[in-house]
Amino acid sequence: MSSKTDTRIDTLLRTLSDGKFHSGEVIAEKLGISRAAIWKHIKKLSDWQIPVYSVRGRGYQIPGGLDLLDSELLIKDLIAAGSQFKKIHVLTSIDSTADYVAKEWRQSPGESLVCIAEHQSQGRGRKGRAWVSPFAANLYFSIGVQVPLGLSALGGISLAVGISLANTLNRYANHPIKIKWPNDLLVDNQKLAGILVEASGDSTDNSFLNIGIGINWNMQQEQGEAIDQPWINLKQLVDKTVSRNQILSDLLIELEHAFADYQHNGLQLISKQWNSLSALYRQPVTLIRANDRINGIEVGIDSSGALKLATDAGEQIVHSGEVSLRKHC
Ligand code: BTN
Questions:
Q1: Closest CA to 145 of 83, 76, 78, 207
Q2: Each residue's pLDDT tens digit, 38-53
Q3: Residue of 178, 191, 235, 244 marked catalytic
């Protein structure tokens, strides 16, 4: 298993992450640069909206400090769990972890890879939306895996990912985390996490999956202002001792099991959990598609991951669309 982290900026962040003042002299020495060159690195932190105080005679400080991911600890946990991921890249900042995985694959096609970032400048959500990705506030990661299944067998993979995430996070949370078909994670109708699945390959026996996951952890209200729906942080639902690092290693281990299970069983075993995990099971919903909308009651999923709706015209099976609770029925 190999790892990759950014160096100078990473050293600067780790030094300042304790929330204490550090003198320019000490920082310059740690980074191997002149004192005059420090500002360039500090400016980078400001570009990522990290507040840095600079006080004459005392040095630099990030008020309140930062809770950073620890790639060494993560790799240790994954090795101990027998993980087969070949590369774990923990990056300080990137445009999008999904784009990073796609680029890596152009060089080493099919090599299993995880990319995690503290910050994304162009995080992508579903349907062309942006994914708000402030520094060290949330979890942003993408997994690249090759699976011996054709594209036609992958219809349910995003549900398998959603179910695995929900099950893992529910072990920590003091409030039920539910799934809104196909794969939003919600708590009391507020968005906790999103999944972006991009698949390529042939139709019968070989596919590349690029699975991007964003989980709100401790985002400040003002950082999430641009989000056009109610959202919630995971940190407020878990014990104070639980860290982002611990959650991330658990999720990666469980997701690896979920991929293996999906290859052998599809949704066969896990679909039984849908009814208890679905945020809208047995509720009146409207499904909105590009050209039509369907009103019905959500009554579960089928073996391919399609949503089943009981409507006035009988049961309808839908493969795509946005589903929402119907308030007036
Ligand atoms: C959604 O719209 O609900 C899906 C959001 C997926 C966001 C994640 S964050 C990590 C990965 N990189 C991206 O650019 N997007 C995904």
A1: 207
A2: 988 999 898 888 989 9
A3: 191
